[in-house]
Amino acid sequence: MSFDPQRTAVLGLHWIVNVIKPEGFFADMLSGPVAASGVVERAARFHQGAQQAGVPIVYTRFTIPEDGGLLVRNTGLISAVAQAGESFRPDAPGSAIIQEMPPLTGSDRVVDNQKVSGMAGNDLPAWLDRHGRDTLLLTGVATNLTVEQTARHATDLGYFVYVVKDCVAAAEDSAHQAALANMDITTTGTLTAREALDALGT
């Protein structure tokens, strides 16, 4: 298996303070399991390796602008986040990409939306198409939320989606494993960071 770096992008889903860190909004649910899993360090190394191969990293952030953007309170999760809107403003500390991730390069970008899928409610699909990126390598938190939702969405849009299975994590291992099993069927497949970097020729 090999990936063409010129046709590949990494989607770094919800690597923000609100999701990952003890001071973030989802601390009680996610910060402990994320820290215990070691996923932050693995994802940071993978992102750096992808950058070295010339692959752009696109970080997605769930943020809520003053006017609400495209937020629709149609799930319990979204409704809870909406009530904490100030914590999710684009310039709020909780919306920042965690500092463990490697610095952005000139080809990397940050995309905001108010959806669970990183591909919804923004210009990311158009950007990927404009740059000829049809192969997507997904990392992020949580496996059973934004990662699975984005993976299914992107697959339906016609992209070749691979989930980097040692660079995703969830609040509970059972949910994590179930989501990975689902994505083995509903996407092009799952693979490790090492396998992905080998396929990129690094």
Folded structure, characterized:
The chain is an alpha/beta fold. It has one domain (5-199): Rossmann fold. The protein is 39% helix and 18% strand. It contains eight helices and six strands; from the N terminus they run βαααβαβαβαβαβα. It has helices at residues 17-20, 27-37, 39-52, 76-83, 124-130, 143-156, 173-186, 193-199, and strands at residues 8-13, 57-62, 109-113, 135-141, 160-169, 189-191. The chain has a six-stranded parallel beta sheet with strand order 3-2-1-4-5-6, with helices on both faces. The chain starts with 7 loop residues before the first strand and ends with a helix. The model has no long low-confidence stretch (mean pLDDT 97). Residues 24-188 form the Isochorismatase-like domain. GO terms for molecular function: hydrolase activity. It holds the Pfam family Isochorismatase. Keywords: Hydrolase.
In short:
This protein has 202 residues and is of the alpha/beta class. It has eight helices and six strands; from the N terminus they run βαααβαβαβαβαβα. Helix 6 packs parallel to helix 7.
Record keyword descriptors for this entry.
six-stranded parallel beta sheet; Rossmann fold; alpha/beta; 202 residues; Isochorismatase-like_sf; 8 helices; Isochorismatase-like_hydrls; 6 strands; hydrolase activity; 18% strand
Terminal CA distance reads 13 Å
CATH topology: Rossmann fold
Mean of pLDDT: 97
Categorize the overall geometry.
Answer: globular
Number of helical elements: 8
> What is the percent of helical residues?
25-40%
The count of domains is 1
Strand content: 15-25%
Q: What profile does the largest beta sheet have?
A: 6 strands, parallel
CATH architecture identity: 3-Layer(aba) Sandwich
Order of helices and strands: EHHHEHEHEHEHEH
What would you report as the Rg, rounded to the nearest angstrom? 16 Å
Number of strand segments: 6
CATH class: Alpha Beta
Widest sheet: strand ordering: 3-2-1-4-5-6
Q: Give the uncertain stretches in residue-range form.
A: none
CATH H level, superfamily name? Isochorismatase-like
